[in-house]
Amino acid sequence: MSVPDSALTTTRAYRRRLDLTRSVPREVVTACLDIAVHAPSGSNRRAWQFVVVDDPEVRSEIASFYRRGFTENLVGKTPGPAQRADFESAQYLADRLHQVPVLVIACQTGRPPDSAPKLASFYGSIYPAVWSFMVALRARGLGSSLTTAHLAYEREVAALLGIPYGEVTQVALIPLAYLKDDPPSSKPRSAAPLTHWNRWPADDKH
Fold first, then answer.
1. With 0-12 CB in 10 A as exposed, 13-18 as middle and 19+ as buried, what is 72?
2. Nearest-CA neighbor of 150 among 71, 36, 85, 47?
């Protein structure tokens, strides 16, 4: 099975375009997760777990924690003109998260380590699977978004879902739904300005 380039270049954070009125069959979610678990992970541990929530009452409770975390994260912050569209889109999702037909919480066995190299390995071992899942969804006409606002209340969400907090870490919440319409094609981008061969350029201070 090949993934078209269009799925890769149009997998992005979808919020306003999500069709909140159309249900998503469980078999579609399962098929995308079956693809996701082929992703690489550190030491090939594949220490992943995915909690799929399609129960409306449970979604509503998770959404409540999400909105609290989202709101608290904005305290003292004022989005500038360049960020306003993204902020309004994120607010739109936060206000309607309970209506999104499926929420997937990606989890990693264990708790985050203290050292930077081990921390990078910990999260780097699951995000490829999350990305593969999102691309697989997009290839099937769905959209999703990688969110983390609920993690301000990770312990409470763990209790709600029966996740053993001391043994398992939630790393992301992925709301997903079919899209209302086809998204516009992405403008061609070049990685050239961001690519450095053999060493960092001496005149680049970023």
1. exposed
2. 71
- Residue 109 to residue 42: CA distance in whole angstroms: 12
- Alpha carbon distances (Å) from 45 to 40, 87, 165: 9, 36, 20
pTM: 0.90
Tell which residue, 172, 153, 12, 17, has the closest CA to residue 73. 153
Residue indicated by tokens 């066995």: 109
pLDDT means per 10 residues in the chain (206 residues)? 72 92 98 94 83 98 97 81 85 96 97 90 92 95 96 98 97 97 81 92 73
Could you tell me which of 202, 101, 139 has the C-alpha nearest to residue 11?
139
* Residue 98 DSSP class: G
Amino acid at 142: L
DSSP secondary structure code for residue 206 in this structure:
-
Structure tokens at 34: 């079956």
